Write a sequence for this structure.
């Protein structure tokens, strides 16, 4: 199909590149696989490169694969070995008016239209690393979050939906026909994996209500609309402009379902602004970091340019510190430049620069090219000595046609890139002459190679300028330009228990949380501020608590706190990056927050050398710590919530199998606490053994006067006993548990407490059934 290339290039106004494409043997099938560096070798400047890439998105090939290829430069993710539980964002796409289309077109033409439609949808989905699960005639079902989870998969799904609408609308079928899509997006808990039945095997099947909700939401949509559900809405924050559609009665759902229409992308500068908005709590525990930034800012204002590399894990508070730092400078006069990287643009040259320029220029979606150039001239005029000479380079990276106003750039791709970087740096330096500049660059670990090249040059040239450059990144990213006197590396550590308690108190407002709730929040979140905030909000919204005059009270007993929806994707993404080693993390999670080499080696279905390699990878990933030497070590999950996520991803049946194997292994060991055996037998569903060990644990605790622990263990035993058939033997076991529980309760609560009296009254009632003495 190489002969189609000249015609296609002519149709998009770039016919001058036809000889270069022909000389390099590039045909239509090769186009979707071209990268930025390939276009550079072909002599395509940046602006034309972007126009080509936009046009390529709408192309199809004669024989599309049944599964879309992975995005350029990314290997397909391996599918999980077995079904899993996880939070998934599901997108359902429908082609509007397909029945009418079949009546208007010849079957062959219709086949071609459907192929191009499916290619356009698949291209948009895979661009954001989604998974095309099914082509259903004129419908497409896609998952975001499987087989690989991403911390922003709801946002990816909506972006893919908007791109899908643009791509489908751009298709031109035969005749005077317009194509439109409508889309539903929903997020929720599912079981995903191969489904095997009498009709055959369905790979990647999903069970749960989320796919049904996505399909029903799609039916609410008008042509060229994306409709989302409540959980997706919560996860998006302010990343998009949304219109509330109210409550809707949907088939198959007993209660009315809220829905929102995606109007467009939100006008926010950063991921932090999108997810947090303006309602922020007071920053806690970062006074030293803020003081350091203020000191470096003073140096920069005095003409000693500074660079601060602010590193820390996800959720540790990097962007929050920058927010507070900026707020502390209220009233000062300075220029702020803010750049934001995104994971799905890590191979798009200068993407953070492009987004910052578009935001600073104040572009509207429907601005024509001439208006965009006018706005850019207004923005750049104060910071450049040669506006006419610089404008083509800025316009080119934003893919704005400029040749008619400024003339063409007659440069090689390499020359154009060098001149573009120089123009960006000159603009920055010129800005710093009139006023200090705060250059904030967030999530540098996702920056593209060209942007990293630009950053390296900026770092070298800010030393003598009034510029403070702050780059945030995660620990795995190692900047190449460290070690200079004007560069400061600042690593953020986790907060203390006391600082975490302060955050909880802030969110609770004038109310005070019960001590056991506060303890569980602090222990589970391990000093990560984002985890503390989200888990506290989840508890306050969960219905576990009731408000009183001055505090909160628990409704019943406190169950283990579930992972908030806002954290599930991020935690699962960390686990999915482990690949096959994730199974060892899951087995470790079933054992507990801590697990020994001896125990996991007895449970895991791996040879010793394979297990050693898997555990080494877990340690190097920093998901677990190792204490002691290999094969005699104790392993500890870095975060309790990571352990919870690994545990929750297992099917209930698989968890029970593992708990049973762990209990059987521990039973043969000496000095094992009975409550540990009781826990594993309980989770394995082996209630008889579990009850016996809870009773034993309660008796041991009473012998040590550990009354609170005794009460907890004995109540667990009584709860299990309630599910057993009525019999005299059952009543005798209950009586024995009650006469052990009574004294422990009385020592803890006093005789006046109703729970103590109820315990003794129940024991006496059992006595009366058997004509036993009432004295206890």
């Amino acid at each position: 199909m190489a002969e189609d290339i000249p015609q296609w290039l002519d149709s998009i106004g770039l016919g001058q590149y036809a000889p270069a494409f022909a000389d390099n043997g590039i045909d239509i099938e090769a186009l979707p696989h071209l990268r930025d560096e390939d276009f550079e070798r072909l002599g395509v400047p940046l602006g034309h490169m972007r126009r080509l890439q936009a046009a390529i998105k709408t192309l199809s090939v004669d024989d599309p694969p049944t599964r879309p290829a992975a995005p350029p430069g990314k290997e397909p993710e391996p599918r999980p070995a077995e079904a899993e539980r996880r939070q998934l964002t599901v997108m359902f796409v429908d082609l509007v008016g397909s029945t009418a289309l079949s009546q208007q077109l010849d079957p062959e033409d219709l086949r071609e239209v459907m192929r191009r439609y499916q290619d356009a949808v698949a291209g948009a989905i895979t661009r954001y690393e989604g998974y095309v699960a099914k082509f259903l005639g004129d419908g497409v079902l896609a998952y975001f979050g499987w087989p690989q989870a991403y911390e922003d998969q709801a946002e990816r799904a909506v972006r893919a939906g908007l791109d899908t609408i643009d791509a489908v609308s751009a298709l031109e079928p035969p005749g005077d026909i317009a194509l439109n899509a409508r889309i539903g997006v929903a997020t929720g808990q599912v079981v995903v994996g191969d489904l095997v039945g009498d009709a055959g095997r369905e790979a990647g099947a999903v069970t749960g209500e989320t796919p049904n909700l996505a399909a029903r939401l799609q039916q609410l949509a008008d042509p060229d609309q994306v409709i989302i559900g409540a959980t997706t809405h919560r996860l998006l924050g302010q990343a998009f402009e949304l219109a509330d559609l109210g409550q809707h009665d949907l088939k198959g759902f007993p209660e009315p379902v809220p829905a929102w229409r995606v109007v467009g992308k939100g006008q926010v500068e950063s991921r932090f602004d999108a997810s947090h908005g303006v309602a922020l709590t007071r920053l806690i525990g970062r006074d030293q970091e803020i003081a350091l930034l203020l000191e470096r800012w003073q140096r920069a204002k005095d003409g000693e340019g500074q660079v601060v590399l602010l590193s820390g894990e996800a959720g540790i508070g990097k962007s929050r510190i920058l927010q507070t730092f900026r707020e502390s400078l209220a009233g000062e006069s300075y220029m702020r430049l803010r750049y934001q990287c995104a994971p799905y643009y890590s191979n798009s040259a200068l993407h953070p620069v492009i987004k910052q320029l578009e935001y600073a220029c104040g572009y509207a979606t429907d601005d024509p090219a001439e208006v965009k150039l006018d706005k850019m001239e207004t923005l750049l005029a104060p910071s450049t000595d040669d506006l006419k000479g610089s404008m083509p380079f800025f316009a080119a990276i934003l893919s704005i046609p400029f040749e008619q106003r400024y003339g063409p750039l007659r440069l090689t791709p390499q020359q154009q890139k060098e001149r573009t970087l120089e123009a960006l740096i000159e603009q920055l330096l010129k800005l710093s002459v009139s006023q200090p500049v705060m250059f904030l660059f967030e999530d540098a670990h996702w920056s593209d190679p060209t942007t990293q090249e630009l950053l390296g040059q900026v770092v070298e040239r800010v030393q003598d300028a009034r510029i403070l450059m702050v780059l945030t990144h995660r620990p795995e990213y190692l900047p190449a330009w460290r070690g200079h006197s004007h560069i400061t590396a600042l690593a953020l550590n986790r907060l203390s228990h006391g600082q975490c308690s302060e955050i909880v108190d802030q969110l609770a407002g004038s109310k005070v949380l019960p001590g056991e709730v506060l303890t569980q929040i602090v222990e589970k979140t391990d000093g990560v501020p984002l985890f503390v905030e989200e888990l506290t909000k989840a508890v306050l919204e969960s219905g576990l608590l009731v408000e009183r005059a001055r505090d909160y009270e628990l409704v019943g007993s406190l169950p283990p706190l579930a992972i908030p929806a806002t954290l599930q994707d991020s935690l699962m993404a960390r686990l999915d990056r482990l690949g096959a080693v994730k199974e060892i993390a899951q087995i470790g999670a079933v054992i507990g927050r801590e697990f020994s080499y001896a125990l996991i080696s007895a449970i895991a279905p791996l040879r010793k050398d394979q297990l050693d390699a898997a555990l080494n990878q877990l340690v190097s990933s920093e998901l677990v710590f190792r204490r002691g030497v290999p094969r005699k070590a104790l392993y500890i999950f870095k975060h309790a919530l990571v352990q919870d996520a690994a545990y929750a991803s297992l099917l209930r049946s698989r968890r029970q199998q593992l708990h049973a194997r762990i209990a059987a292994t521990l039973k043969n060991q000496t000095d094992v606490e009975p409550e540990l055996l009781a826990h594993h037998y309980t989770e394995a569903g082996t209630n008889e053994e579990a009850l016996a060990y809870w009773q034993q644990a309660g008796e041991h605790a009473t012998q040590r006067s550990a009354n609170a622990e005794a009460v907890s263990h004995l109540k667990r035993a009584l709860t299990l006993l309630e599910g057993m058939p009525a019999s005299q033997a059952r009543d005798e076991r209950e009586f024995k548990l009650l006469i052990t529980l009574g004294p422990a309760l009385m020592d803890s609560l006093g005789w006046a407490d109703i729970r103590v009296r109820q315990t003794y009254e129940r024991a006496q009632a059992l006595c009366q059934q058997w004509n036993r003495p009432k004295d206890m």
Confidence is low (pLDDT under 50) at residues 60-80.
